[in-house]
Amino acid sequence: MQNKGHEAERRAENFLQRHKLRLLERNYRCRFGEIDLIMQEGDTLVFVEVRMRTSHFYGGAAASITAAKQTKLIQTARHYLSRHEADQPCRFDAILISGNQEIEWIQNAFDEH
What residues contact 71, with CB distance under 8 A and at least 6 apart? Predict the structure, then answer.
């Protein structure tokens, strides 16, 4: 399972790089959680959650980014920003990879709440 997760993250990274985003960090971890990819698009920091689902049962990949997961991602992003003294626009994107390997990129997937 872990290999599939890493493979999905690499596919997402390559996809985003083809769309002119630059990788800053993979699998940023702190006590709050983990962010799969941190990318740069122009002057905007992009925190990316990668989700792969082989079926659409239980709502598929998008439904797996729950409110609790969003809270953890926001806390982890704040930690990253404080460690890097970053003061620039940010957004949270999601890369969803389906069972047939199609990639869906949701920009601004959610906001801070």
Answer: 113
- For tokens 């989700």, the residue is 51
Q: What is the pTM of this model?
A: 0.89
Return the domain boundaries, the chain: 2-110
Angstrom CA distances, 72 to 30, 42, 49, 78, stand at: 10, 25, 11, 10
CATH of 2-110, one of 3.90.550.10, 3.40.1350.10, 1.10.8.640, 3.40.50.2300: 3.40.1350.10
Indicate if the pLDDT at residue 44 is higher than 80: yes
